[in-house]
Amino acid sequence: MTTDNTYPKSFSHIGLTVPDIKKAVQFYSEVMGWYVIMEPSTVTKEKETAIGQMCIDVFGEDWETFEIAHLSTSDGTGVELFSFPNGVKEAVPFNPFQTGLFHFCIQDPNIEALVEKIVANGGKQRMPIRSYYPNDKPYQMCYVEDPFGIVFEVYTHSYELTYSSGAYAK
User: What pTM was estimated for this model as a whole?
Assistant: First the structure.
């Protein structure tokens, strides 16, 4: 008999490429309330530091500079923002059927107010706010976009509660 030492890994951070890092920091800090843990700064391609070498390893040789900022959600999940001066400034077309990152999800019990705030600050509401279990459980969700076309989802309750059968059972 073998013992499986696999355990659930925690989510550390997500990296998002945006066309304007200052506007993105403003949106995510003011609308989402995320903490700015590193203001926007410029990274220049060089091989003398560990960060410089890591960026070359990740991005290759075809870049000279980019801007980066770090934010954190209330539960400590990081949001790493990148802006490349010669990068594509439009979001890729929404295609959930294509392999790759489809969306991320944030949680707020006041989904109506957050969706309104997202729209008021240049984002979009992609669908009506929907209930997972109408008349049984208070779980709601909605897909939205930030002002840069990045699609994400809003839940009113945690992932575990939303998908567990015993939560809010009658």
Answer: 0.90
